[in-house]
Amino acid sequence: MPYACIMSVPNQISCVDCGGIASLISFLPPDTTIEPGTALAYRCADCNERFDVVFEAEDLD
User: Taking the model in full, what pTM does it have?
Assistant: First the structure.
């Protein structure tokens, strides 16, 4: 079942490597539907690491 609530996807997360702030770098058009298993990319401003986060159903509630 698709989830239309893009509001639950954070624009920033904590970097697991350095503790800095990793920002969403995936392009999400306004009408994007996020489904369980969707991967979004984040990049840390401090260490420049990229993280692909896979969202599960409980993350999107």
Answer: 0.77
- Decide if 1 is inside a domain: no
Cα–Cα distance for residue pair 43/61, rounded to 1 Å: 24
DSSP-derived pairing of the beta strands 12-14 and 38-44: unpaired
Domain of residue 43 covers: 6-59
- Output b/e per residue, 21-51; b: 16+ Cβ within 10 A: ebebeeeeeeeeebeeebebebebeeeeeeb
Chain segment 22-56, per-residue pLDDT in tens: 999 998 887 777 888 889 999 999 999 999 999 88
